[in-house]
Structure formats: C-alpha cells, structure tokens
Amino acid sequence: MSRPPFCVPPAGVRAHRLATRRGEFAVLDAGPAPGIPCAGTALLVPGYTGSKEDFIALLRPLAAAGFRAVAVDGRGQYETLGPGSRAAYGLGALAEDVLAQGEALAGGGPVHLTGHSLGGLIARGAVLRAMAAGTLPAPFASLTLMASGPARVARFQRWRVRLLVATLPVLGPSAVWRMWNPRPEAGEIGAFLRTRWLAHTPQQLLATGRTLRHEPDRVARLAAAGLPVHVLSGERDGAWPVPLLDRMARRLNARRTVIRDAEHSPNAEQPEATAAALTDFWLTATSRPAPAGRRTAAPA
Known about the structure:
This protein is about 45% helix and about 20% strand. By secondary structure, it is an alpha/beta fold. It has a single domain (about 15-295), classed as Alpha/Beta hydrolase fold, catalytic domain (Rossmann fold, 3-Layer(aba) Sandwich).
C-alpha cells in the first residue's frame, strides 16, 4: 500500500469519472496550463490496495512538464464500483479495462502507460492485449513499470498476501484493518487510508491477491511487443528485489531508473525526482534512444 503525502487534490487537479467502452472510472486529472501545448497523456495505474491518490503528488509536476496526467481507480478500487464476483477481477479483465482507458485518452496525443506494483502487471497485460489485437503502438506510446517485477512477488510478500486473502472472508474488512493496523495513523491521511481500504470491493482484493502470488514471467512476450519500456524503482524494494528489476530491464532492453531515498513507492516517497525521470523518458521514447544502463535520480 502506498501512503500518499496528502489526499486532497491540489489546485489544477480535477476529480471526475472517465467514460470508456468498459464503463466509468474515477480519476484524478491534471493538465498543462492554458496556452501550453500538451506533450501527451500519462495514464497512471495503482497497485494492490491502492488508488489514484497514490499518484496525487506526481500530478502537478507532470502537468508542469507539459503532460496531462490521469490517475485512475481500477474496477473495485476505492471510488470505482465493481461487481461482487471474483471472476470480474482476473488479470485479463483488468488489463482490458486499462486498454479501454488508453483508448479513451488517445485523442490527446501519445498515451504513456505507467503501472505501479500490481498496476505494472495489469499495465503489462494491457500492452500484450494490444499486441495480440495488432493495434500497437496504439493506444500506448510507452510503458513504465514502477516497482513492478517480471512475475509474482517475493516469497515474504506472498505469505503476507496469502494471510490477508485467508482472513478477509472470515473476519471482514474492518477486523482485518484493525489486525494489520493495531496502531492506526492519526489525522487526515490515517482516516483516508482506512476509508479507502473499506471502500475496496473484497472480491477485487481476493482476486488480485492471487495474481500477485501466481503471475508468471511474461517478460519475453513484452520484449517482443517492441514498445519503449522504462523500469523505475526505489533503491530498496521488498516486493521485488532491486537486482531482479535490474535483470528484467536488461531483458527488455529498457531504460532503468533508480530513485534515491525511495523504497516501494517512489511515486509517493520522492514524487519530484520520479516525475522528472518519467517525463525525461516520455520525451525521448518516440525517438527510441539506446538504453544507457542504470540511472540514479536524486531527490530534488
């Protein structure tokens, strides 16, 4: 779970619902100031137990760099309602949702897809579905995998997710929250985190928890898609070890960026450095420069 540094949308960030062929999705949306040309659109997909607010601190820096930034709640996440069937939250269904979101945003220039953690696995699935349909590079001009690895999460995280999935149907969301947060954070952020957790559709958490524990390695298929890829992470990560992310980037011939003083959520922990790394990649993605090895981005 990412802990956003704040949860109230700042000036220039609009909360609304994005209409797609797969239904409506709650989003936070920020664009360049009037009169500034838009360089493209960033579609930001959150991770397990997360929401669009995980990217809230990125939105204004991305807009200031000339991009429209759209962070989305996936189906069953926080403010996007979802059905009560676990089958509705398989990776294929969620990837098709992201593909539909990309199509809905494609009229504003190139769409740069970014997925954090579980969101990276879903975003990868959306790219592979576009490849299978023969539409690439539409609707996506690039893919950034943020703190998201080649396959299932590390062993310790698999055990944590297994425990959550086992207790949720038995105890219910409120009791599970109390179990995992015996000393809950006070104030606005603490209240938001609890509200968000309780708003998630339980079946979404159960189904996507299984994805985190069982997702196979699809790196070779992604490499065959030929899309510019960026592998970005903090310098420490408990979900996928950083050396594993390094190796994945080499397999993808991808740009590799490590954000200093960040762990699993550089989007929330070091948003300025993360936004700078993202926009630098997006501005050069269409020219397809050769990757120059691992890059380190220091906090601003």
